[in-house]
């Protein structure tokens, strides 16, 4: 038997070890997957062996394969086996595998609880350290709950190595098990003043992480940190502390004032760049929090900006990057100070390093003014042309639009220039995403700046013409959508309109190749819109031949679209054709285009026209409305009607406006829409009529409705439905005109529409700016939309005064009456730190002590506190003194678990078993068995020990201080920031 | 907090990976791949910070990396870490490796990824910086290795012999493959 075992072991010796595996993989580069699959099989065989060495070997190999991307979660049980080995070698392998492959949700993790506790309490500090390191990677809620106490105990270990690890580990425990934070906090605080600098630094690290998310709870620690900051020489720790102050100052301006001086001193004195940089950052945070009014305030800003300038001018790219990063923080609160260094930022735009260019771009936001915007944008355009890599180009474009559009186009004086820039951007290779951005800008400028609409329309016409001439690229395809909209919505010049119709229909057709389907449909619509506008124009001018020409051309353009492969294009083309045929028939019933364009529909059209003419109501209405105009309208009002479908202005709508529309008080959604409650055939369109409160023109035929008998009513309804189905004029109620009075419902559409522009003509605006401004000013009053502009400019009057010739920009967006612009609270994030938002200053009260959670903690804690003091006075006493009280804590817990299940939340049920494993605890057990009595007895005792402790503290304080300082001296050499020898790292450099 | 530490070579092959936040294996590989693509296209004379990396982190996270000879050392950290501090930490890490392996090169990491992990565990724990003093780290490592050796003792002798036989050919291979020494590369990398 034994022989067999030995033989087995011997054979196993020839198993592949990790080195063989790596070598094998390297030798099988061509069929790596196959080789690894084979190895996996071998590993599975090895894992079935009894020999732990073989298993460990297999697990080591698995760890390597895990790095290559192979799932090894199936081996979790084997890994746990290896972790539980007594040999440190195997433990190391096991814990490494666990830390790489386990995670908080792994199954079987509960199997590890006891084993890890045993390891944590191991006598060898490295075994405990190993367990801590491993646990930090996969701790789960249950493990945190069960092991919190053991880790807390380790925080008071005699070995700094373990204290350090345990302190860091506590952070992970807090994240998984927030209930541990309050009981553990006093001890954590105490570790901030640990004699060992490593432990101190670890504690600072943990508090910083905690405070970063919930700073207000840690304000009370500010004095401790302040002391640390002024005394410590460990740069790592200083950096953390200074970062922490950066998080605290916004909550407590007084702290900021106190910090300025020591930080300024540090800035002047330190030679470590990393520290200098963090100091500057925190000073910036302070400056932001206290705003102005403090003496020396301006000087501090100056100091920061100067130091940052030095960083940015440094040849080290890292410093340059960080300098720009910090600059962007100052920019928010003190833009003036940063603007002084515009030259520097602009120079960085030419840097060879993309990260730096991106940073500089971010700063530009605050650098632009009315004066230099054109210059800067011109520069960026040059970059745009040269830039390689879409990331940078995209960022450039985004930034360019951002700096122009910021604050409602605050810095844009000349919108014609801006539209030209947008047009030029369209020409460049950018992604579709940015096509959307440009498109949105075009639409927005069109909607907000009434005075440039004519120009924008011309530019858009050119864009559409080019879109028709050659297949547009990704960006221009998106922009086409906006271009078509802006062109048709704002164009007022006859020749532009006239020339745009056929390009638009071409764009909508297959000619535009990849044009976005959405854009193509809009093109059809735009063509129809333009035709309607033109017809109206010609009608007023009594220019019948021109009107006929337009009709024929549009119909001809729409004809190929009637069988477009896109449903939407097809549908809109049919609609347009039907409408225009109607008009054409009225103008010239014999026109050949009629038969041509919709031969199979000839009948329908006929009946439509007849119906229309015979329909007394409609016709009379039109005539009445048109009154004297009727005499010179050659289409009998048809064109007027057509044009009115597109009349009215679309205005920008505030975000979320739709949500804020109040429900009309008289709207009862449960009531039948029709008075004839029984009629199931009341269509939804009827409903719209009846809820007329929302819409403008109530239909005249509604007034007498109640006087009809049911039969008549049914007849009328039928007739009306018929009429609605066939009558294009019925669209009236959905036309923009009604929207104008009910902006809320409309504007969503307006925002979606974007636009395009073209050539490299923006430069001319830079040179002829002065002149163009004057001429434009003269031109402006003639513009058609002037009255509307005036209405818009009321909000932005002050703006305009400052801008001189700057056209007014409509601000904000429409909101329902009474609704205010406010951001809805973002939904709370699922962040573990939220649970850690606990008030730590409130002492653990007595009634709190009675809760199960705290019950388990204070006792060991007080014991540990005592121990700490003892340690300084006499080392030998310490262990015995500390253990008893700690033990009693354990004992008590065991009791309480037995007593009530509710209390057992965090109680390691296995404590009893554990005792057997742990010699130390066993001995304590003997000593302390008598002290473990009921809870009632324990409580007063505990308070006593606390008092005891306090008095002791006073007496020992002096001693401990002495000790600390002497220890500090010893460590002084180590404390310094560890710099790599022979290498000049940034932090070593002296300013 | 440090979210991840990645070491890969000039071709994007992972040599060491440590994630302090859970990602499954596929995701880990994707992250390594993405990070490699981001980092590898940058010149050596540009800055060592990189924003972006859509897979890992978000706007609060940064990639901080150093390139030594054939290896990239990349740390993904959030804003609570000092950028320059992490750069120094990478330096400490590499120098500690250099001390442990005596002139560390990529092959050392290939064949002893476990040892590299042990070094890393003394440097960073659960995403937080544990120790930055190289002397301390080396001392801790030596003591642990001593424990391991003591355990192995005589019983490991046969196994060692076997692996010596297996590695017979290795010296030649090593000589063929040895890459520029890191220390020299480090010295060349002046700021």
UniProtKB/TrEMBL annotation, chain A:
Bias (Low complexity) ranges: 675-685
Presence of the UniProt keyword Lipid biosynthesis in the record: no
Bias kind Basic residues: ranges: 774-789, 889-900
Domain spans labelled AP-3 complex subunit delta: 708-841
InterPro entries noted in UniProt: AP3_complex_dsu, AP3D_dom_metazoa, ARM-like, ARM-type_fold, Clathrin/coatomer_adapt-like_N
Main location: membrane
Biased segments, Basic and acidic residues type: 761-773, 826-850, 874-888, 935-944
Keyword Membrane: yes
Location of the protein in the cell: Endomembrane system; Golgi apparatus
Record's keyword terms, sorted: Golgi apparatus, Membrane, Protein transport, Repeat, Transport
Classification via Pfam families: Adaptin_N, AP3D1
Location of region: Disordered: 613-632, 654-705, 761-991
Family assignment from sequence similarity: Belongs to the adaptor complexes large subunit family.
Record's subunit section: Adaptor protein complex 3 (AP-3) is a heterotetramer.
PANTHER family documented for this protein: AP-3 COMPLEX SUBUNIT DELTA-1, DELTA ADAPTIN-RELATED
Full protein name: AP-3 complex subunit delta
TrEMBL record, chain B:
Classification via Pfam families: Clat_adaptor_s
UniProt xrefs under InterPro entries: AP_complex_ssu, AP_mu_sigma_su, APS3, Clathrin_sm-chain_CS, Longin-like_dom_sf
Keyword Secreted appears in the UniProt entry: no
Ranges of residues in domain AP complex mu/sigma subunit: 1-147
Keywords tagged on the record: Cytoplasmic vesicle, Golgi apparatus, Membrane, Protein transport, Transport
Membrane topology: Peripheral membrane protein
Biological processes, Gene Ontology terms: Golgi to vacuole transport; intracellular protein transport
SUPFAM superfamilies linked to this entry: SNARE-like (SSF64356)
Keyword Kinase attached: no
Compartment(s) where it occurs, according to its Swiss-Prot or TrEMBL record: Cytoplasmic vesicle membrane; Golgi apparatus
GO cellular component terms attached to this protein's record: AP-3 adaptor complex; cytoplasmic vesicle membrane; Golgi apparatus
Gene3D superfamilies (alphabetical): 3.30.450.60
Entry function: Part of the AP-3 complex, an adaptor-related complex which is not clathrin-associated. The complex is associated with the Golgi region as well as more peripheral structures. It facilitates the budding of vesicles from the Golgi membrane and may be directly involved in trafficking to lysosomes. In concert with the BLOC-1 complex, AP-3 is required to target cargos into vesicles assembled at cell bodies for delivery into neurites and nerve terminals.
Protein family according to the UniProt entry: Belongs to the adaptor complexes small subunit family.
Protein name: AP-3 complex subunit sigma-2
Protein's organism: Bicyclus anynana
Classification of source organism: Eukaryota, Metazoa, Ecdysozoa, Arthropoda, Hexapoda
